[in-house]
Each structure stands twice: as C-alpha cells, then as structure tokens.
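I hope you will forgive my troubling you with a question about protein structure. I should value your view on which stretches of the chain appear to form regular backbone elements. Here, with my thanks, is the record as I have it:
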Amino acid sequence: MKTIIVPTDFSPVALNALHYALALAKDLSAKIILFHSYQIPVTFSEVPVVTISLEELQKVSDAKLQELKNDAEHVTSHQVPIEAHNVLGDVVEELATLCNNYRPFAVVMGTKGAGAIERMIIGSSTLAAIKRLDAPVLIVPPGATYKAIHKIGFACDFNHVKDTIPVGEIEALVKTFNASLHILNVDYKEKHFTGDLTAELTEINEMMAHLNPHYNYINSKFVEEGINAFADANHIDLLLTIPKKHNFWENIFRKSQSSELVLHSHLPIVAVHK
C-alpha cells in the first residue's frame, strides 16, 4: 500500500492540502500519515521565557491532531487508513526522518504567504522540504481541489538531462496515474536552439522514449507565465519539476509577478529529485 505523508500546522492551507491528499489516497488506495511537529514557544525579552510547559504543549497538540484525524476519517467514511504522528522538533528534520522510515509515494503540503516576503515564495517549511526531502513533494495551491490526473506537464530546460532527470521517478508517477506526459520547454524566438540543445534533445528522446512523451515548445519571454498559460490552455492536471541549482525553482522564487502567478495558480506542482 502506498503511503502519503501530510504535514499540518492546522492552518486553512494545510487543511486544503489534507483534503486534496485524502481524495488522492482514496483514488490510489493509499494510506495517510497525518504529521504535526511542534516547538516550545519562547517570548524574547532580556531573558527568553518559555510561555507554556512542554507537557501542556504536547497535550494541546495531541488533541488538535486527533480532532483533525477524526474529521479526516469522517470525510472519507473510514475508507482511507489514517495514522497520526505528533512530535517535538523541527518540521523538516522530523519529516526527513519520517520519510526515511516510510518511503512515501509523496509528501503533500499546502502553500501559504502570510507576510509580504512570504507571499513571494512557497511557505518556508514547504520550500525547505522541497530542498531537503528525497521523497516527491506535491504542493497544493490555496483553493485547489483534487481531480483525476490524466495529463502531467514536465517543465524541462534541456540542460544536462542525463545527469539531472530522474527517469525512474517520472515513470512511476506516469504509470501510477496512467497519465500522458507532456514535456514543456519555454524559449523565446528559439534563441536557445543551438548545437548543444540538439545533443540534449537526442539524449532525452532516448531516455524517455518508453513513456511516449509529447514535446511542447512554448514561445514566451517568461518561463513561469509560459508554463502556466500552456497548462491552462491544455488542461494539464499536475506540473512536475526538478529542483536544480540556478534553475527553475531558484528563478521562480524571485520577487516578481510571474512567481505570484505560480503561487496563486490552481495547478498542483510535484517536485522530484534525481
């Protein structure tokens, strides 16, 4: 049975991600691990002061997580097995430990942006999870609801494809959903079509041939806007990307209108690693 880990901080965006994960789990006959990590709140003055005892904090946290588990079981009519894990510690570090123990199909997280800076990036815990976890991280935008995944869009820059594309992980996603794979490359007036690109295209064709992908070349000045426009026009259900240094994710988190479009898109994004 596949396992889906769903971290929660009990916020509305986390609750929305849980509802998405529950529907996904039902579709895949998977189980859910509902996860919460709590830390001791400290008030900083001249001398840091702990505002609540560890025992009380754990008690409150346990109660909230159990209530959420009960609600989730009710929503699914007890058709999805659900476990609850409540731990003291850093959320990403504890998530990494949980992933090492369970080897999940995916970690499903919501996005959030309460402050002026956070609105420019995916919530700090989600971004850290993308960078830190080996498991796929499926990011659910605010308000997104689950629907069957028939088309997966793979945002690819055709750069060092042999060393960076996790073919096995992509194949697992495509076959799990019995979906078609659409490889998306954004270029503007074909300025990137060089001899090196021809070699990369030959390489990726050989690597991905067994998945029968559709290649889509998007003419746009801006990567994020081009991908989102194509996804909307062609009914892409899930966008897949590979976090790489100096690539899609680092560009996408810059303060810009295009990053805002991604954050407020209805389209879920799954990040997978080589």
User: Anything to note?
Assistant: The chain is about 40% helix and 20% strand. The domain at 151-271 is CATH 3.40.50.620 (Rossmann fold). The first strand starts at residue 3 and ends at 7.
